[in-house]
Design brief:
Number of strands: 4
Strand order of the largest sheet: 1-2-3-4
Distance between the termini: 17 Å
CATH class: Alpha Beta
Structural class: alpha+beta
Strand content: 25-35%
Order of helices and strands: EEHHEE
């Protein structure tokens, strides 16, 4: 995830916290190879990212804001790993990948995987991590 905002400063509310905006990624799916299972399963991700606002008058330029494509590419790389242990691993790693970007202040990640049984039930994990947790 690129971050070319070294010369920008986060915008603060007068006497308050940094202004933020929210990025939502809903229903991202990718095949994963789970440890102990043959074949691939389809993982489903929902992300809510709280991101520092780039400031007043920022240019209409992808470099000024978080790129959805960067997030999706990071998720694709994560899902390409072999022997994934489960949805908790995927949720933790996805949150860490998002928080590696300095603009992201908070990452909430939900992951669902199909059950190994044929009953249609799924398994999942949900985590919320803050930038302070990632240091």
């Amino acid at each position: 995830m690129s971050d070319s905002s070294a010369d920008r400063r986060a915008t603060h509310q007068p006497g308050g916290p940094t202004l933020t905006y929210t990025i939502l990624v809903r229903g991202f799916t990718a095949p994963v190879r789970l440890a102990g299972r043959s074949g691939a399963a389809t993982a489903r991700f929902d992300l809510t990212l709280t991101v520092a606002h780039p400031g007043r008058g920022f240019p209409d330029d992808i470099a000024a804001v978080m790129s959805y494509e960067d997030i999706v590419e990071a998720l694709r790389s994560l899902c390409a790993e072999d022997g994934i242990s489960g949805p908790d691993y995927l949720a933790e790693r996805a949150a860490a990948l998002c928080l590696a970007h300095t603009k992201v202040q908070r990452a909430s990640v939900e992951v669902e995987l199909p059950s190994a049984q044929c009953d249609g039930a799924g398994i999942g994990a949900s985590v919320t991590r803050d930038q302070d947790d990632n240091r």
